[in-house]
Write a structure and sequence with these properties.
This protein is an alpha/beta fold. The protein contains seven helices and ten strands. A seven-stranded parallel beta sheet has the order 1-10-9-6-2-3-5, with helices on one face. Helix 1 packs across helix 2 and helix 2 runs parallel beside helix 3. The structure holds 2-amino-2-deoxy-6-O-phosphono-alpha-D-glucopyranose. The site of 2-amino-2-deoxy-6-O-phosphono-alpha-D-glucopyranose has 13 residues, from loops. 2-amino-2-deoxy-6-O-phosphono-alpha-D-glucopyranose binds next to loops.
């Protein structure tokens, strides 16, 4: 595991972007895992900047997002379909038809099975980008999620609903369920990068890196992976 601490989000994003572009350059058919949230935004900007500097097109890259709310229409501006389109696909110049986001509508259990199969059919994820929730969740794998869990529907915890209320007009509009890649699915990616910024993430980062390895701390599962790079700012690293 590598831990890198940056003084600015621009530097963090550029460094992570360079790691992602190197993976993409190294393969004819690269597969990258995308994450939502504010943390990966500098990474998407850095990725776009490095690709532009090097003159490398990104429209052949296959992408799989981590998660999506259940029961929220795809066109809703805060659906993860919309967020990924806005924050990643458009910024980086990805091909929208190659960017998959789990479907939280209809038969969600069947969608979840099909999503894991689609990742496997694409030969797995070369590099997965992750944020971490204040309660240590990865994707929407809330505390208690088994380390070998697969893509599935999950009930969101009250603190996650409260954290995400800022994106909706009121907390009652925040979906209470989501579909997420499982921790087992995430661990199968060949390379992981975890981005955490700001003081509010310091306890989750410290728990993931130094606390007991426990399902109560989903981030602690990352210690089981052999190729993880943490991209932190000084505030998020302040309890290490
Ligand atoms: C949501 C997402 C997670 C993300 C988390 C933290 O819950 N499902 O994938 O890591 O938010 O978001 P932020 O980076 O905005 O703090």
């Amino acid at each position: 595991m590598t831990i890198q601490v940056f003084q600015s989000l621009a530097e963090l994003g550029k460094s992570a972007g360079a790691q992602i572009v190197a993976v993409i350059e190294g393969k004819p058919d690269p597969v990258i895992g995308l994450a939502t949230g504010s943390s990966p935004i500098p990474v998407y900007q850095g990725w776009a900047a490095v690709a532009k500097e090097r003159g490398i097109a990104m429209d052949h890259v296959v992408c799989f997002a981590l998660d999506e709310y259940s029961g929220l229409e795809t066109e809703h501006p805060e659906s993860y379909h919309s967020v990924i389109a806005r924050d990643a696909t458009e910024v980086i110049g990805l091909n929208p038809s190659l960017v998959r986001v789990p479907c939280g509508l209809g038969d969600v259990a069947a969608n979840a099975l099909e999503y894991d199969e689609a990742i496997q059919a694409a030969s797995g994820i070369d590099l997965q980008i992750l944020g971490i929730g204040r309660n240590g969740h990865l994707g929407f794998n809330e505390p208690g999620s088994p380390f070998d869990s697969r893509t599935r529907e999950i009930d969101l915890m009250p603190e996650t609903i409260a954290d995400n209320a800022r994106f909706f007009d009121s907390i009652t509009q925040v979906p209470t369920k989501a579909i997420t890649q499982g921790l087992g699915t995430i661990l199968e990616a060949r390379e992981l990068i975890v981005v955490a910024t700001g003081e509010a993430k310091a306890p989750a980062v410290a728990a993931a890196l130094k606390g007991p390895e426990s399902v109560d701390l989903p981030g602690s599962v990352l210690r089981r992976h052999s190729n993880v790079t943490w991209y932190l700012d000084e505030a998020a690293a302040s309890l290490l």
